[in-house]
Amino acid sequence: MNPDQADALILFGITGNLARTRLFPALYALAASDDLNMPVVGVGRNVEDDADLRRRAADALVEAGIEVEKFVFDRLAARLTYVSGDYRDSTTYDTIRDCVDGRTKVVSYLAIPPDLSDDVVVGLAYAGLASDGRVVVEKPFGRDTKSAAELNEIIHRHYSENRVFRIDHFLGKDAVQNLMVYRFSNSILEPIWNRHYIRGVQITMAEDFGVEGRGNFYDSVGAMRDVVQNHLIQLMSLLAMEPPVSDEPDALRDERVKVLKATQTLDPTQMVRGQYNGYLDESGVESGSDTETFFAARFEIDSWRWAGVPWIIRAGKGLSSTVTEAVVEFNRPPRMHFASDNSVPGPNRIAFRSKPEDRVVLSMQTKRPGPEMTSEPVDFTVETEDDVEPGRGPYYRLLGDALRGDSSLFAREDGVMESWRIVQPALDYQAETLSYSPGSWGPAEADSLLGDQWEWLTNGDTS
Known about the structure:
Helix content is 32%, strand content 21%.
């Protein structure tokens, strides 16, 4: 018996978009694997009663493409209870306490706006549900360094740090976790995974669509807060970290945090903000908004392993294609053998792609067929079939980890604060938001981040 196993789950924001698209499918998958043997209390508004909540759950599963088995859904439905109430009203928490029926190892999931977190944490403490419980907090964790520190202080009044689970679903993706396997299960990479052999690293998260009706939310966040400060900096830390000393959750988090501590605070001259033409016409976007839909910056990790190696991160909407990829480029050979005047061998590269498909590509040089002794690049590709059942994606894994008390794939306070410290200049120094055409790769000014002798390594080839 796991002593850290939760005995109840409370989901605040049960009527929101996240619950419909991610949490209900994850709950169904947990019920299917018999890992949800506890009361599940959904808290929100706009639902009439338990039966209405169960109907919403059923609709969400169909929408997610899940082939619902009646006995599994019945198992989930039997655990679902709905509480309607004001998050600032103590009677709401009295009702929640009654629903969990004396259980104390309660996981409370806050799928709510950050400005409501204070009220919910205080309410849970009032009801006696915080002392032995855990709290799961969705991103964004704060809006900047100051607000993140304030939110930490609020939560820590009632939850010790080891019982705070800051969720970033990006860390629950198979492709992202596979980075650690490639890094630490293949000894061939370790001797060359450093500044002596690697020229630079580029991380791209591009989407060929706009805000898709979420203008009201996106306009208050922007590309940097939405994906760079969390998803992509976490990805950088996984690529750059040292091997963990053990399998303990904090051993992995320690190494990720060490990378962040070694990362220099952004130089305002080494970042570019952009906004696609037509963004201001999106529903929910304020007139004259300068919110960026594109953000790119040059990062430097000032550690023994990585000093002098540029890390270029870019993310944006309305770009040429939809692709999430990290490309590591190695130094060229010291001499250019097997090269004519018009054909200079390119460097070796390894690309880790998680979208639109999960694949790893190693680019090497091989002899070009024919009488001439010249080389050409050839790609060695490993592509993973996407055989994950609907509902068994990142939220299934992370919600299950939270119920078991495994914090390995969750952000820790020091890591979150370091991430905000790194990007704070992007908030303090509001650089001009440059226009770009939808279907392009963002403002041309972003090319300056590469220097004179480098190019973007992700060109939108999604074939």
